[in-house]
Amino acid sequence: MAVDTMTAQSERRVATWKRVGSMREAGLVAIILALCVVMTFASPHFLTLGNFRAMLMSFSVEGIVVVGMTVLLIVGGIDLAVGSVVCFAMVFAGSMFMLGLDPWTSSLLGILMSAVIGAIMGFFVTVVGLNHFITSLAAMVIVRGLCLAVTKGTPISLFTLPPSFKAVGQGSIYGIPYVILIFFAVVVIFDFLLRRATAFRKVFYTGSNEKAALYSGIKTNHVKFWVTVMCSTLAGVAGVIYMSRFGSATPTFGVGMELNIIAAAVIGGASLNGGSGTIFGAILGIALLSVVSSSLILLDVSVYWQDMIKGCILLAAVSVDHYLHKRKA
C-alpha cells in the first residue's frame, strides 16, 4: 500500500514538472537565464548592479503598456497607436503645465485624454464596425500629427517641474525606484483580475469565440470597447511617468514603441487570434527584449542592426504563435 502511495506521488510530481516544462513562461525563463549566462562571459559590464537597474527601469514603464496590450490581444484586438498615445500624454500634460496648471492635474488630464483616444478607437471598432488594426493605424498617424502640431515639432522643456513630481520617475525608496514599484503594482493587480475577476473572464470568452460569447449573453462590443479604453489609459500613465523621468515632452518620443510592445506580448504567449495570453508571460517577453537590447548595446552592435534583430524576434514569435494555433485547431 505504501509503495503504491509513493508511486502515485512520484507520478504526480513527474506530471507537475511536465506541465511546468511545457508552459511557455518556463521556456522564456530558460532563454533569459541562458542569455544572461552567455552575456556574463561576453561582457564584463553586463553582470553589474548599474546595468540591471537600467534594464529594470527601461522595461518597467514599457511593461505598463504591455499589460494593456496583452489584455487587448486576448480580446482579439491590437493597438498600433500606443507609442503615439504615450507621446500625446507627455505632450498634453507638459503643455497644460506650461500654461500654469500644477503637474498632478496636468498629468491627470493627459491620462484622461489618452482614455478619450481609446474611447474614440473603441467607437469606430464597436459601432462603425472597423477592425482594430485599421482603426489603430489611423489613430497612430492622427495622434502623432497632433503631437507635432501642438509642439510645432519642438521638444517642451519641463525643468521647472517640482521635485515631488520628478520623484515619480526619478526617485526611489530603500533603493527601489518608484517606477519599478508602480510597474509591479500594475502587474499584480491586472494579473489577479485577469485570473480571478468575472468581468475579465469575459475578455477570454470574447477573444476565443465572439459569436458563442454573444449567444451566451456577453455584450462583446462592451468588452472590446472598455478593453480598448484601458489599453490607451495605461499608455497615458506610461507617458506621464516618462515625462516625470526625463523632464521633457518630445513630439517624436515613442516612435516604433508599438513594435516592442506587441512583440513582448506575443513572445509571452498572447495570441494574435485572441483568446489566450497571460500578464506574467508578457512581462517575461518584455524582459527578454530588454536583455537582448542591453546585450546588443554592450556588444557595440549598430542601432540599425538592433532594429532588424528585434524584427526577426517578432517574426519568430508570430510564426510560433501561428503554428501553435494551427496545431490546436
From TrEMBL:
Topology term for the membrane: Multi-pass membrane protein
UniProt GO MF annotations: transmembrane transporter activity
Annotated transmembrane regions: 26-46, 52-75, 80-101, 107-130, 137-161, 173-194, 225-243, 279-298
Cellular compartment(s): Cell membrane
CDD domains xrefs: TM_PBP1_transp_AraH_like (cd06579)
Keyword Transmembrane helix recorded: yes
Entry keywords, A to Z: Cell membrane, Membrane, Transmembrane, Transmembrane helix
Major location category of this protein: membrane
Keyword Magnesium listed: no
A Pfam family per the record: BPD_transp_2
Name the UniProt record assigns to this protein: ABC transporter permease
Species name: Rhizobium setariae
